[in-house]
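Limitations
The structure tokens in this dataset are predictions for the assembled complex, not deposited experimental models. Users should treat interface geometry with appropriate caution, especially where small molecules or nucleic acid strands are included. An illustrative entry is reproduced here so readers can see what is and is not provided.
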Amino acid sequence: MSRARTALRRGGAAPLFEERFLEAFSNADGPSGWEAPVRAKVVEAVRDAVDSLEVDAMGSLVARIAPAGGRARRGPHVMLCAHMDEVGFMVTAVEKDGRLRIRKVGGIDPRILMGQVFRVGTKGIRGVAGVLPAHLLSNNDMSKVVPIEELFLDIGASSRNEALQAVSLGDLVAFDTTYESWGSVRKGKAFDDRVGCAVLASLVQKRPPVPVTAVWAVQEEIGLRGAAAAARRVSPDLAIVLEGTASGEAPGASEGESQPRMGGGPTITIQDRSLMADARLTELLQKTAKARKIPTQWKRPGVGGTDAGRIALSGAGVPAAVVSVACRYIHAPAAYLDIRDPRRVVELVWHTLEALGKEWA
Amino acid sequence: MPRSNNKSTRRSGQADWSTDEWLRHLTALPGVAGHEHALVPEIEAAFRLFADKVERDRMGNVLGWIHGSGPSPRPRALLAAHLDRIGFLVSRIERGGFIRVVPVGGFDPRTLPGKEVVVHSKQPMVAIFGTKPPHLQKKGESEKVIPIEDLYLDTGYPEAVVKRRVPIGTLVMLRQPPVGLLKSRLAAPGMDNRSGIAVLVRTLQALRDRRPAWDVIAVGTVEEEDGQICLGARTSAEALRPEIGIAIDVSHGDMPGTREGDTVPLGGGPSICMGANIHPGVFDGLRSSARALGFPYSVEVTPASSGTDAMDIQIASVGVATGVLGIPCRYMHTGVEVVAPSDVDHCAALLSHYLVGLEPQWRATEVLK
Amino acid sequence: MTPKARRATRANPLDALLNSLVPAYGPPGRETGVRAALRGALRGMGPVSEDALGNLHLHRPGRGPRLLLVAAMDAPGVIVTRLESNGTARIDLLGGRSAAELIGAMVVFPDGGRALVAYDRPSNGKDAAGPEAGTLYLVTGLDKNAAAKRFPVGSVGMAESRLDRLGDQWRSPSLDNRAGAAAVVAALERTPKSAYDLHVVFAAQSELGSRGALTGAFGVDPELAIVVELAHVGDGKDQSSVTLGEGPCVGLKEHGYIAHPRGLDLARKAAKAARVPIQYLVRDEGSTDAGAVRRSGAGVPTVLIAIPARKTGGPDSLVHARDLERTVDLVARLLVTPPAPEPTPRKRTPRRGGAR
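Predicted assembly:
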């Protein structure tokens, strides 16, 4: 039998994970509420591959893709979701002397901000979070963490007028990080959840085995907001959320505490603060991974929350699951991931969709 | 119980009231989250002066409709201002006739000791938040803020009378008549958010004369102040499915001790909010209207949450394009909230200009393919 | 059913229901045991179905407004978060119990496995505020490999919930909300005909923030809703005036919930007609399925009927038997009491949820 016919019988190979998507999405800036620059990159990546593409009232991108085999092929309507926003900041005031005041959008540890470099606005004007040098401070002051309300950005301007030539009130502010790679390690900004966005953009490059609506959602980091409205619009039978999640490795961590690991394969959620993952769907993911010899790991139960929590509670309820890439240092200026993991996630999700198509009566 | 409403002058000439009169009237009406039904007839009457249709929905929201002039099916713009003020409910009667209350909405407990309230039982009574005189206090006690659960109300009546006349769950409101300050400024409890209701009334008035293409529904929403969500905003947006939803609520007015960007100037006109809760197209439209009118306005940056009904409107149903207009208000959540009537007028003028200018074919969803 | 059991059931159907529901396995998200027990109890009452989140729906069609009756069926549970090298399993809490209340409880798992909740007091004595959730663990009595097989990461268990009678009080860890669910079933048994098009939802995942109640209510889209729950009163922080033995509570206010005038009116009418003494619940905390139901969809006029309960500091809750019986009386009467007509009626059709 020809290889093509065998492939057809098997249902077709999964699409490949496209690293160029990850690089483009990670380098783009988009704190919650300001996702437009990221959305533009996603549109570029998927426009030709999908059947329809819309931006909803909150700014989420919604794409529909009919399954391979057209009407002959049935199956549950699956919503695949990743969020475009990152934790970041907004310019809330410009002082008389040209310094910028910022407020955070999403959960950020204030200790990582002092002395950090940022990009402001769509033009990417550089600003530094200045701090008083050590020799001008008392010992007492040195041990205090500066709260965000006290921080300011120096973009080099000496007056409010000068500053407003370059930036505006309300401009987005993001960490000034550039994507890099070495070995199987990838370093970049906002892997939570640009890796999910890239996995999703890769998945839709081929017609899936079941009807899929792909949603690149907004405002996850400030309360899982975009997915709630998007799920009502889509009204799916099932949902799988694709995320970047915190890995457990740290010096002194025990074996159990180090889970999930970077490079340990797709991380599957059983339960987090927002969701009891649907038991059947989660079981199917596990079974599929085993059959395809994809290593998987469990996300530590009881930690964090995702859009899946909101999607599960939308309308009259949706069975939902979460598959993540374990990353180090999420919610920090630069995160790490293992490039093999997003490849495995694409494969796992694709073949799970296949299994869903077969199971559906 | 002292009486202070002047029913006789109310109905006649209410359509010609000044903003100051509206504010005095609206802030005096009792009604906390979940107990807005007492004030609803007054709000309905106010809306009825100018709206094409007035109705009440099942959760208690009051809706005033302006039917648009555009062709059917017409898109809808929802304007939301919450009806509830912060107040209390009686939770327990203690020995001696002292009344314990739970707050409905966020109160600043520092401002309560010694204040007068009205207990809205069948025969309303005046009561005071009791305090210890200084010579009976322990050392250092006067430096600690008394939390609400340790406060109590005293009507002066004996326990038997109180138990008979005040059932569990009775509504209790702060008793503070409006105070006129310099420059026409007004201090009263309940400017949050009866000043927003005043904006709705004034906007309905303007739209009746200059009809927009869109349907506009002014909604006095219930339960913004209490609980985890703005119930009335969420449920009315779910039922009406508007394209645009604009919340009108008070913003922190300038006060000493605040940082640049944290407040908006009193008398500086309405604030137009920008941030994750605001649709960029709606923000641009509101700002264009402000510029076209030449009125004073400020831009208020609200990065993640606007803290208003718009938070719940935005994610209702399939999502709504939202905007927020702020009325500068000093000393929020106290009995002396200060508002400038000119800010209310400018807010209403801005809002009606924006609504009249809405294109009939504008939609919140953008189709790319 | 044996003849003896049948006699017992006839003698006191509520007791039989409690015995069947209270011990049934059913932590949040894994309500398998209690769902099966409820299916048995509801047999013959009408079409029963399960929705996307695991709620159990019963529909008793009828003329009259669409009424939703909600009682949660899950009980607080635990989930294994990681396994240590010595075979102990670290756990996290699923639902409303505090860590302190679980110390010493036996936890049961669906395959029959059992383990004991333990806690090591810190050497510096700095646990005056009580143990933090992450410090509890399960003693399995097995070595690391056997423990990993029997209680792998993600296993979900529930406190062993024997039902006990102590004088005039019922005692068990899962009275919240199996007592409420039992009261609802008993009321249904007593009222084959109601004044409503009746939808009953036994809600899942209530302990995790009223998740099932929210989606279940959306799917039904009722005109009016009654939620039957337990309300724990009488401890140090309690601001309410409710006591055990004085009758069921009508909830006026809790965190995120305020009684709707229509529901309140109906409850008062029914209580008067059934001669059931009621108490009023006003407090700043608590938060029940009533809050979720009332904000679902375009909003639902809702009233909370709460059975007064007491905590003991350990896993058990206490409920006065008479309060429970009176709750059944009240709910049964509510079902046959038509409400005052709605000011602005609206025609809506029930909506169904995702795949199951």
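Some entries come with short summary sentences. For this one: Chain A touches chain C at residues 76, 236-239, 254-257, 259, 270-271, 276, 279, 298, 300-302, 312-319 (CB under 8 Å).
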